[in-house]
Amino acid sequence: MQLQQGLHNGAQLEEDDLQVRRKLDLGKGIDLNISLDDISTEESNENVACVESIHSRIRKEQIPVLGMEFETEDKAYTFYNTYAFYFGFSVRKSKSHFFSNKKLRDRLFVCHAEGKRDVDTRDAADVKSHRAETRFECLARMKISCVSNGDMYRVIEFIPNHTHVTSSPSKTHLFRSHRKMSAINIAQAEMTDRSGINPKETVEFMSRQAGGREHLGFIPLDYKNYLRTKQTREMKTGDTGGVLEYLQKKKLTDPNFFYAIQVDKEDLITNIFWADARMMVDYDYFGDVVCFDTTFRKNKEGRPFAMFVGVNHHKQSVIFGAALLYDETAETFEWLFDIFAKTMSGKKPKSIFTDQDAAMAKALASEWPETTHRNLATVYMITRRKKNL
């Protein structure tokens, strides 16, 4: 009974806090291209009252004040980011200036909703999905400046007002500036990855250990990104150089040999596709029906080795193309299907058989919508039945 009462009280506090935060939405019904001085006195007073209400739930020493000093820029950022966590928003580093000796002179920390999105010059018909608006010209900020002795940074500007609804405490952990994998998280992640435990189960287990995902400190996407970067960097330079050297030699001996490499944001190799002249000729003749399979694993990291396979007029298997992939996500398959079609002069198969992976099906629907997609398991079952007959 007491537990139910406690849960009810907690939910009521959460709802009350959310109602307060909804009043912070100054963007409703007003022009966002204004400064604080342009806001009406009534709206300004209401906003100040809302901010004070939220501040009353935060410890006084965690709220920035003018004149507050920090030893380094990082400490100032950490302090403001902690304040933002309790208030309900994320922080970005904005404008900065430096002295002639490259020492930081001042830095501006702003709300994640500061500024506005650039005008999209693309044709609306070419955009598959529009991202949600995240910039509302928010005014909240904290600015620090180097004091005269040059050893400390002082808060010279602090604006707590927001032009959007801030988050409730139960959702703040989802913001980017509040997500970080600790050293303990990293050690545990590496251990479970070496043990072969998949990321979903690992994150679920770590969430239970932490008492819920809101206390974990990161989201599943952060965990996957960490593993991806770590595993790619662990690839030996000799291995990467060997693959590139082999592909370049093939290109020299066969001018019609084609290969493509995809890199991530850090310019690290992720996916490689190749096809020689014979593969392209075979596909031109027998490429109406293609079998695509990624069940092979080539190395200890379990990288998928994928092949586009068909059957010639002698009922012999022929290969149309091959790829070494980093993972089996929809984005990877979209890149692969797109580059395969371009390699084959834009020709797409009429039918393709796969293992019916969800990510694969999504990529096919996006890149090859006209191609009929069938399950390999169904083909195997039909073949076995015919043999038994």
Description:
By secondary structure, the chain is α+β, with helices and mostly antiparallel strands. The protein has eleven helices and twelve strands. The strands form two sheets. It has a seven-stranded mixed beta sheet, sandwiched between helices. Strands 1-5-4-3-2 form a five-stranded antiparallel beta sheet, covered by helices on one side. Helix 9 packs across helix 10 (358-367).
Secondary structure class reads alpha+beta
The largest sheet has its strands arranged as 6-7-10-9-8-11-12
Q: Note poorly predicted spans.
A: 1-13, 18-41
Number of beta-strand segments: 12
Secondary structure tally, helices: 11
User: How would you describe the shape?
Assistant: elongated
C-alpha termini separation = 66 Å
- Average residue-wise pLDDT: 78
Mind telling me the C-alpha Rg? 28 Å
* Proportion of helical residues: 25-40%
Beta content: 15-25%
List keywords for this structure.
389 residues, alpha+beta, 7-stranded mixed beta sheet, 5-stranded antiparallel beta sheet, 11 helices, elongated, disordered N terminus
Set out the fold topology.
Blueprint (H helix, E strand, L loop, with lengths): L1 H21 L18 H15 L13 E2 L2 H15 L3 E8 L5 E8 L29 E6 L6 E7 L23 H12 L4 H12 L9 H15 L2 H17 L4 E6 L5 E7 L1 H10 L2 E9 L6 E8 L5 E8 L5 H14 L7 E4 L3 H10 L4 E4 H13 L1
Helix pairs in contact: 9-10
Short characterization:
By secondary structure, this protein is α+β, with helices and mostly antiparallel strands. The protein has 11 helices and 12 strands. It has helices at 2-22, 41-55, 73-87, 183-194, 199-210, 220-234, 237-253, 277-286, 330-343, 358-367, 376-388; strands at 69-70, 91-98, 104-111, 141-146, 153-159, 258-263, 269-275, 289-297, 304-311, 317-324, 351-354, 372-375.
